Amino acid sequence: MPDTQKNLYKKLLGRLGEGKARRYLRKKGFKIIEKNYITKFGEVDLIGLYGDFLVFIEVKTRTSHAYGEAMEAVDEAKQQRYRKSAEFYYLYQTDRSLQPRFDIVEVYPDKINHIEDAFQ
Q1: Burial state string for 11-29 with b = 16 or more CB within 10 A and e = fewer than 16
Q2: Is 110 helix (H, G, I), strand (E, B) or coil?
Q3: Which of 6, 30, 57, 68 would give a disulfide with 25, using CB separation of 3.0 to 4.6 Å?
Q4: Is pTM beyond 0.85 here?
């Protein structure tokens, strides 16, 4: 399927939001070890280390609150894909002594909202 102008705008907006999220998380003490990690189950936006946690981070970027909160877009199906991708990464790519955690970072023009341990 060819990229439309709208799809290209959404991709650009998403990448800009991920950049803002990375900077924000680094300031909070996260070490970002992967970005846009792709498995057959889907893509994990960011993977970071924070204390004893291996954190799988979904970044949702919005230009307004017109269609609800950004985190509402992380439905059960998206969470399931994240769990499977995280399990793959956790089993094959990293130190298993770290505790996995799923966070969501909402990026808006005027603020960033970090939801720790957003789902199990």
Answers
A1: eeebeebbebbbebbeeee
A2: coil
A3: 30
A4: yes
